[in-house]
Amino acid sequence: MAAKRPSNSSMFHGGLFLRLLLVVLVSANAASAGSIVEYLPGYGNLTFKLETGYVSVGDSELFYYFIESQGNPQTDPFFLWLTGGPGCSSFNGLIYEIGPMEFDIHNYPGGLPRLLPYKYAWTKTASILFLDAPVGTGFSYSTSADGWSSSDTDSALETYEFLRKWLIEHPKYLPLQLYVGGDSYSGIIVPLVVKHIVDAIDEHTVPRFNLQGYLVGSPTTDENINTNAKVVFAHRLALISDELYEAAKENCNGNYADVDPSNTKCLSSLGEIQHCVKDLFRNDILEPKCVFESPEPTRRSLDEKPGDFILNTPKLEEFWCRNFNYALSYIWANDESVQEALNVRVGTVKYWSRCNKSLSYTKDVQSVIDVHRYLSKKQLEVLVEVGDRDLVVPYPGAVEWIRLLNLTIVSPWRPWFVDGEIAGYTEKHSQNGYRLTYATVKGAGHTAPEYYRRECYYMFKRWVHYYPL
Fold first, then answer.
1. pTM value?
2. Residue range 452-469: average pLDDT?
3. pLDDT value for 32
């Protein structure tokens, strides 16, 4: 007997089901799977393995750049890297600090910026996953109106969930030694993420993380300590006089944060200090501040509209400021061919910003000293590195909060060198298997790897492979 022909109705419903299933499968794939990038405009064919993509965490679509170790990816450690802000894209860390590329800043004739290979990349000795977080940073976006709001607490949890999902999708990296790193404001987020990982390990959560430690560079750690450290730093570097420093200490009782409005003597001293430092470039006190006084007084700063600036460094050398370097990232990352090569979803981000100043973000964690103290009970390797010209997060603050952890100094203060030249100073602390290395980078600003990439590469390479600095 001949088979019964399906009715039009059943064929319709079956076809509809298949189409819906296909949409679901494609959407799921688009929301999580990454793509290998083999070519980048301005660079050409890549000489390293780059994957970009999104991971869905709630309503957030978090964008990432993953660069596999150019050394031995089967054994080299695996790093999750966050950039500060909050709201600064991890592309900033990739291109200006620790990645295998840099802009050809000194030979820019206009148009799409050219990218060059960079020799002293941390990816030469580690696989690094650069994450645009929190939502609203870089190419990360929300699928709902309510999802754009975030906070320290939310961002840390979303970052942990992102890492968990990413490693489940890339299981070959699970056995590798895992580190979490970041700089500047990520000094708040990194230890919170590490605590989530530690708690997951203690609770035997799947997947099992092979956590080894964490790194914080020029880290915001405690708002009050950081504020107080700026006055101490200004005195140590002779930015204010001994007399003004002593007066401020006496009038403010050594506390320059949350000053009582009725304490007029303290406010007066702080006003004088502010007058002494207000025209300095806080990221590096010896570099020019990014202000045009002449010959173009109408264009004050690249922070306003960096895309409006046409750069030619040799001709503008006497007017150079560091923000000129940043302008190239706006031009490059907003180019349609670049976004297509990076597999950025069309229309999700209208304008890419190196640092998004308009985030809907709540700073709900004022200090993570207690988090560091909690983590100090675990067997972890920690690196705290700072530039000694940084007035954004001055090094005396790092010294202070590390002291509050009550660790034992096992390797006292000493210089560390690269090619026989002093690169900074270091001190090592330890307690019950928790090993914290503190290092300054001589002459560096905020953040240190941006100023001294070669020296910071050797610092990182030695530390992550358990060699003394």
1. 0.88
2. 97
3. 55
User: Which one is predicted more confidently, 384 or 26?
Assistant: 384
Residues with catalytic roles: 184, 390, 446
Query: Left, alpha or beta for 279 (phi > 0: left; psi -120 to 50: alpha)?
Result: alpha
What domains appear along the chain, each with residue ranges and CATH number?
A: 35-223+363-464 (3.40.50.1820), 224-325 (no CATH)
- Judged against a pLDDT cut of 90, whether residue 10 lies above it is answered with no
The CA dihedral of 198, 58, 67, 180, to the nearest 10 degrees, is -20
Closest CA to 194 of 59, 62, 362, 368: 368
Structural Rg of the chain based on CA atoms: 24
The HSE-up count of residue 281 (CA atoms within 13 Å, CB side) is 19
Cβ atoms of 89 and 355 within 8 Å: the answer is yes
